[in-house]
Design brief:
The complex is a heterodimer of chains A (about 230) and B (about 300). By secondary structure, chain A is mostly helical. Chain A has one domain. In chain A, about 65% of the residues lie in helices and about 0% in strands. Chain A has a two-stranded antiparallel ribbon. The termini of chain A are far apart. Chain B has 13 helices and ten strands. An eight-stranded parallel sheet of chain B has the order 3-4-5-6-7-8-9-10. Chain B starts with a helix and ends with a helix. The chains are: A mainly alpha (about 230), B alpha/beta (about 300). At the A-B interface, helix 1 of A face loops of B. Chain A: InterPro entries: DUF6064 (IPR045708). Chain A: This is MFS transporter permease.
Chain lengths: ~230, ~300
């Protein structure tokens, strides 16, 4: 499109808030009770990270890689492609990014030293807290906002909590892949936050603040390591 | 207190009216108000139906049914022009489904757009759009926001010559690229232009609307309510006494009457998801329209709120 600078963010908002939130209600209705399974899988990853086995140090990384790859791919196919893309053509460009993230997460979980989870430090603790909030508190947001509970965004079925939980858990991880695995979840949080902001929804600040927090903490983790080389 | 005489026109307003082709004059009592497409002489109801945001409801069956209800009410109230674009997500498919449900009303005046930077992709996009609507041909196809306008206009004019569409147009919104828009209006054989115009966004009054009248180009007004922001802003504000004199019972009707009272405007295309609103919008195109002086008062009053 020519003269991009003449467009405002709300020129690209193609749908109403009502239509948007009903996407999640339709997703939840169609897939119930899968929400329980995806949330349990997310909590299992958290537990595996919290109680790493000395005998199988790579186990949490493998569980993390398998579960996260599955939920990223499933969210891309079931929500982005099937429900969101029909009302927002820009989302079609996000679908390959979600599948790429799924592939990267799987690869990082399978290769030695991809994502290694040790005892969480302060940064990792903040990441874990963010992940647990994404798993348990994010679906409860309709209770605060006044939306129908059926429109809850659940980890593994909705992109925002999936990205936030993934980003939070990556803060606990050590390994060479952090800089590769973080950009897509953070970019999604930024994109979704801006969309919600354009919709005039106060919830916009949750993905935006999550992305900012994770980015800032990731920098503190990555920069000293780079500087020390 | 406003008198009927004053409503019917000041000298300046009457002069503006007189400058237009005779059939283009305002029908003060018809319901709904009908205007004439200058290039053909075809009459067209002055209130159409936009689909930006409101019809982009994806595969949601409940919302699709609501859109079909809006279309049914629109046709029942005498409406004809429905406008959409490939940019509007699922809106085209929703319009198509609604038309099918309504038995493909003969009254339909289909207005679409081509929206791609690739000249080569234009015909394929128009054909895909046509299949989504389920129509034999479009009445009007416009170059959306002047994107790739030179190549697309050549395509559209050729299609018109071949009888594959009836009218050709260009669009802009929210005051974008008015200089280029004006240049294209001057040089190309356009039937329609589409632009944003309302009591607060009056840039088009300076050059584009007079030029459209001069060149005999029909004008479609988009975003009359600033995507609902204007009516939300006015929500709760009491209607002044002159609104009653105009027969307006809502701010939406006041705004539409302001727009339609400009002699160069052919059709305004408000978008809505509500049946009562579509009826209200079409009702605005009946009865009395404000004269030039009252239009200034309307703009000043709304601007001050």
């Amino acid at each position: 499109m020519s003269e991009w600078w003449t467009y405002r963010l709300d020129d690209f908002l193609l749908f109403s808030p009502r239509t948007y939130w009903r996407l999640f209600a339709a997703q939840n209705t169609a897939l119930w009770p899968l929400q329980l399974a995806t949330t349990a899988a997310g909590l299992a990853v958290v537990l595996a990270i919290l109680r790493p086995s000395r005998r199988a140090a790579l186990w949490p990384g493998l569980v993390f890689g398998l579960v996260m790859a599955a939920v990223w791919a499933f969210t891309a196919w079931s929500f982005l492609l099937q429900r969101y893309a029909p009302i927002n053509w820009a989302v079609a460009y996000a679908v390959p990014a979600f599948f790429l993230e799924a592939g990267l997460l799987l690869l990082a979980g399978l290769v030695s030293g991809g994502t290694v989870f040790r005892r969480a430090d302060a940064v990792g603790g903040a990441g874990l807290a963010l992940a647990v909030a994404g798993l348990l508190l994010y679906p409860a947001l309709p209770l605060v906002s006044g939306r129908p509970l059926a429109s809850a965004e659940v980890f593994g079925l909705a992109p925002d909590p999936t990205a936030i939980v993934t980003a939070g858990l990556l803060l606990v991880a050590r390994g060479r892949w952090l800089a590769v695995l973080l950009p897509i979840p953070l970019l999604w949080c930024l994109l979704s936050g801006l969309t919600l902001l354009t919709m005039g929804d106060g919830q916009a600040w949750l993905p935006l603040a999550s992305a900012a927090l994770v980015a800032a903490l990731a920098v503190t983790r990555l920069v000293p390591r780079t500087a020390g080389r | 207190m406003i008198t009927r005489r004053r409503l019917m026109g000041t000298a300046a307003f009457a002069a503006a009216m007189a400058a237009l082709p005779p059939a283009r004059g305002l029908a003060q009592t018809a319901t709904p108000l009908t205007r004439t497409i200058p290039s053909s002489g075809e009459p067209i109801p002055a209130v159409g139906l936009g689909t930006w945001i409101t019809f982009n409801v994806g595969d949601d069956p409940e919302l699709r049914a609501e859109c079909a209800d809006v279309m049914a009410a629109f046709f029942a109230a005498g409406g004809r022009m429905i406008d959409s674009s490939p940019m509007y997500g699922s809106s085209q498919a929703v319009v198509g489904q609604g038309l099918e449900r309504l038995g493909r009303p003969d009254a339909l005046f289909s207005a679409e757009k081509v929206w791609t930077s690739s000249a080569a992709d234009g015909p394929a996009q128009i054909e895909q759009t046509r299949r989504r609507w389920g129509v034999e041909r479009f009445d009007l196809v416009q170059v959306h926001n002047l994107l790739g306008w030179e190549a697309h206009l050549a395509t559209l004019l050729e299609m018109k010559a071949q009888g594959q569409l009836r009218y050709v147009g260009i669009t802009t919104s929210e005051g974008r690229r008015h200089d280029l828009f004006e240049e294209v209006m001057r040089r190309q054989p356009l039937d329609f232009v589409q632009l944003s115009y309302n009591p607060l966004d009056r840039e088009a009054e300076r050059r584009l609307l007079p030029l459209a009248a001069e060149r005999g180009i029909a004008v479609i007004v988009n975003r009359p309510f600033r995507q609902g922001a204007l009516t939300r802003r006015l929500d709760g504000a009491p209607l002044p006494g002159w609104a009653g004199e105009l027969g307006a019972t809502s701010w939406a009707q006041v705004i539409l009457k302001f727009i339609l009272a400009h002699p160069a405007v052919t059709v305004a295309i408000p978008a809505t998801t509500r049946v009562d609103h579509v009826r209200e919008n079409l009702a605005a195109a009946g009865g009395v329209l404000p004269d030039a002086a009252l239009r200034e008062r309307i703009a000043a009053h709304i601007g001050a709120l």
